[in-house]
Design a protein that fits this description.
The protein has helices at 9-28, 56-83, 87-96, 107-114, 121-138. By secondary structure, the chain is mostly helical.
Length: 150
């Protein structure tokens, strides 16, 4: 019996793939800035105080500055983690998951055509799991298996 927790590989892989999906969204989609509304909203109260003050322009300005900064920091963090990986793992993650062509590239395409020379599916899976494990550790995404009580 090991004192180390057992990792749920499927859940951990799903968590890493979700993070890489978010990376691609932040990296390749443009940020739409919010603009202040100059017309009254239908929920605006004209018949008495609500004791709530708001500064729409300040809220929008904060959002327009903070959101792109958070997205940029997130992308840079993912890129730093990937850059520290061994060459094969880094290559796999960059070619399969960090490209804007992700939706059109399959695992089979990567291990048969992108890797030179081509590698087997089993070797590809090993490399991918090692890379995912390192990403999950660094980004605190490891999912432990539920222990059976008894």
């Amino acid at each position: 019996m090991s004192f180390l927790p057992e990792i749920d590989r499927n859940e951990t892989q799903n968590a890493v793939e979700e993070v890489l999906e978010r990376y691609r969204m932040y990296k390749f989609l443009s940020f739409e800035e919010r603009e202040a509304s100059i017309t009254a909203s239908p929920t605006e109260r004209f018949h008495g105080p609500t004791y709530v003050t708001s500064d729409q322009t300040a809220s929008i300005a904060i959002y327009n500055v903070d959101t792109p900064a958070k997205q940029k920091n997130f992308c840079e963090r993912i890129e730093r983690v990937v850059k520290r990986m061994p060459r094969m793992e880094r290559f796999l993650i960059e070619e399969r998951y960090m490209t804007n062509e992700h939706d059109y590239i399959t695992d089979q395409h990567v291990y048969n055509h992108v890797f030179q020379p081509a590698i087997s599916e089993g070797k590809y899976r090993k490399i991918r799991w090692k890379a995912f494990y390192k990403l999950a550790c660094d980004l605190n995404l490891l999912v432990e298996k539920e222990r059976a009580s008894g």
